[in-house]
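Sequence in, structure out. First:
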Amino acid sequence: MDDESTRALIWRHVSAIGTCMMVTQGLNGAQARPMRGVIDRDANAIWFFTDRDSEKTAHAADSSSCCLAFADVSGQTFVSLTGSLDVIEDRDLIELHWSEGAAVYFPGGAADQSVVMLRFTPDHASYWDAPSNPVVLAIKFLQAKVTGERPELGVNQSAWMS
């Protein structure tokens, strides 16, 4: 699979899964928290609403390095994106991406000055697709036990995202 096909597949998985664990680096080490972003493949970005005074905003200001981990356990599809996280205070951009979901966290609306956006720009991505059928998995593990070889448990691809 070429890089463009791999990138397209990664964006499809990210869009389908939706919620990720955002891992940022702080004074006490790596910290992960669940986040749901606005996927913008054309801009090679994922946008997140957050509070100006949040810990993740401080982490983004101190070190823009970030990892987003997406997991669809029932479908056995996993995606890891590494890249940079930037704090964006553009009111027009906040208004553009505003949603009912954002309003739940920020009842003051898009004009609320505590609302900022985090722009995640992926540099590199990897995905793993494994068989989700438990019978298929059991057969693969049984084959591996009999042959003494590692089980072939799906596809793993990586791509540069820009």
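Second:
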Amino acid sequence: MTGGVLLDTTVLIDLLRGRAGAASRVRAARDAGECLFVSAVNVEEIARGVGEAEQAGMDRLLVGLQIVPLGESEGRRAGTWRRRFAEQGFTLSQADCLIAAAALAADARLATGNLKDFPFAELTVEHWPVGA
């Protein structure tokens, strides 16, 4: 389970809302033979935000994605990032650090609408504008 792109929650929301830009980028990645990933953190964020009417759409969306497992090494990496950035005066969220660690674990790029949330030099981040 390596290579491809991990879809951040911003991208998943755009897909659930039927935004053409996100859908065409996902199609292009699939056509190129890339794996599409999410982490359990992304699943939690989506599940927390969907209403009953959107539940079936969320289920359909997740069926086509690989879930990257989070384990000790990802937890350590996320915690180390949070501590190092905090020492420099920057607060990073636990969720974003775990999502980034999952992308690295899968050797995947991270697609997000929020570039500023993922300032990690070792991570390749692609900007997929929100709402596009």
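Remark: The chain has six helices and five strands.
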